[in-house]
């Protein structure tokens, strides 16, 4: 997979060189390229923003540098274009799984009050486009979202994870939050590991974990429970 990121803060994307995405890079699973939007400006001040038509607070990203950026990047081949914006569709594990199937993703990181809408509309005439939000809160720009989405997608690439089971058992892969986990010692500061986990009874452990996942999801994320198909015959009650 190839990932291009266009931003006015390329140094914000430095963590992609490290850890997770860095490992995938070394394995040759992903080719990540970060681009400075100002490289597609032509004025002395390398201007990327201007005042909004219709008035109002803040600045809007000008269309011309973005247009030239996409001309150059899309000339290198087709891509799915992700605009990171708080007014986008919520990013979920399902979106991550979809993006993980793509050959190439171009992230366009918005700043200020956003990018001139005509950029999104024009790019949509020549590429598959999605506007994606990390969640219902406001960040200063889409760079953190591009980082988060890249990390969620890259770890799903075939060959990234050693153990396939570890992917399936995670929070959100089955529509539930993950059950609580414990390690040694069995007793710590007066808190004991639930005895079933020491029982060696694998069926009982699996049943306990599923029940815990359902309870935790019901308490913290009732919105997920409503959507879950795994709720058959499970009663919701207090966790402890
Ligand atoms: Cl993608 N961008 C910005 N600026 N704020 C956000 C966001 C994105 N997702 C949630 N808040």
UniProtKB/TrEMBL annotation:
EC number: 2.1.1.228
Locations listed in the record: Cytoplasm
Enzyme class: transferase
Binding residue positions for S-adenosyl-L-methionine: 110, 134-139
One Gene Ontology CC term in the entry: cytosol
Swiss-Prot/TrEMBL keywords: Cytoplasm, Methyltransferase, S-adenosyl-L-methionine, Transferase, tRNA processing
MF annotations from Gene Ontology: acyltransferase activity, transferring groups other than amino-acyl groups; tRNA (guanine(37)-N1)-methyltransferase activity
GO biological process entries: tRNA N1-guanine methylation
Keyword Metal-binding: no
Catalytic activity: guanosine(37) in tRNA + S-adenosyl-L-methionine = N(1)-methylguanosine(37) in tRNA + S-adenosyl-L-homocysteine + H(+)
Subunit structure: Homodimer.
Family: Belongs to the RNA methyltransferase TrmD family.
Function according to Swiss-Prot or TrEMBL: Specifically methylates guanosine-37 in various tRNAs.
UniProt-recorded name of the protein: tRNA (guanine-N(1)-)-methyltransferase
Species for this entry: Nocardioides soli
Span within the parent record: 1 to 240 of 383
């Amino acid at each position: 997979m190839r990932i291009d990121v266009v931003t006015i803060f390329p140094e914000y994307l430095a963590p992609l060189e490290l850890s997770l995405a860095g490992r995938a890079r070394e394995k040759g699973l992903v080719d990540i390229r970060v681009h400075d939007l100002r490289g597609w400006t032509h004025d002395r001040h390398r201007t990327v923003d201007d005042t909004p038509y219709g008035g109002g607070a803040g600045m809007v990203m000008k269309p011309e540098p973005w247009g030239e950026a996409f001309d150059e990047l899309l000339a290198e081949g087709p891509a799915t274009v992700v605009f990171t914006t708080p007014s986008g569709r919520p990013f979920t594990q399902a979106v991550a799984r979809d993006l993980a199937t793509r050959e190439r993703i171009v992230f366009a990181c918005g700043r200020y009050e956003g990018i001139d809408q005509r950029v999104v509309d024009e790019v949509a005439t020549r590429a598959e486009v999605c506007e994606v939000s990390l969640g219902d809160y406001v960040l200063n720009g889409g760079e953190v979202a591009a980082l988060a989405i890249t990390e969620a997608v890259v770890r799903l690439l075939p060959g990234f994870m050693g153990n396939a089971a570890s992917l399936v058992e995670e929070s959100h892969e089955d529509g539930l939050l993950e059950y609580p986990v414990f390690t040694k010692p069995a007793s710590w500061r007066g808190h004991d590991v639930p005895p079933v986990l020491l029982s060696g009874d694998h069926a009982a452990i699996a049943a306990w974990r599923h029940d815990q996942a359902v309870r935790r999801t019901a308490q913290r994320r009732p919105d997920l429970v409503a959507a879950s198909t795994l709720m058959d015959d499970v009663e919701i009650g207090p966790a402890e």
